[in-house]
Fold:
Amino acid sequence: MLALGLAVAMATPLAANAADYVIDTQGAHASINFKVSHLGYSFIKGRFNKFEGEFSYDPANVTASSVEVTVDTTSLDSNHAERDKHIRSGDFIDAGKYSEAVFKSTKVVDKGDGKLEIMGDLTLHGETKAITIDADFIGQGKDPWGGERAGFMGTTRLELADFNIPVMGTSSYVDMELHVEGKKK
Structure:
């Protein structure tokens, strides 16, 4: 269910002009959110409260960008403690056994007009699968405290069976929405 977080943050510089950023989770300027169908009647939305990551971004050479994010799966929060306990259990994501999900980009494609396709490997529930995050560059510049920041948002759909996670009711997938703001190192 996560990833990505899985995912729109970008790490490990691949080019000399790329700027390196740390995802600003301490300032609550980033989030990894999920949405899953509830019995086919409505949706449950939630988030992962603990994650960290870095990204590298060069607007002049977007393909040299990269991202790595680690999500604490025990921090899953759908605003309902009993449901969260069940989703974290061995019935679904088994956060006790698989306490981390990791996304590492392998390729970034510049789709033009601030749109990116971030391909990478997501390790979740003991399985590693290739996923693609559709991302948008929001902007970058100086902040009021003398630093520099860059922001992105992204979406992806994870098929639960790809990660050997049991289907939750009628839903075979979870939609992820990622918001990332990084502070330049």
Q: What stands out?
A: The first strand starts at residue 4 and ends at 7.
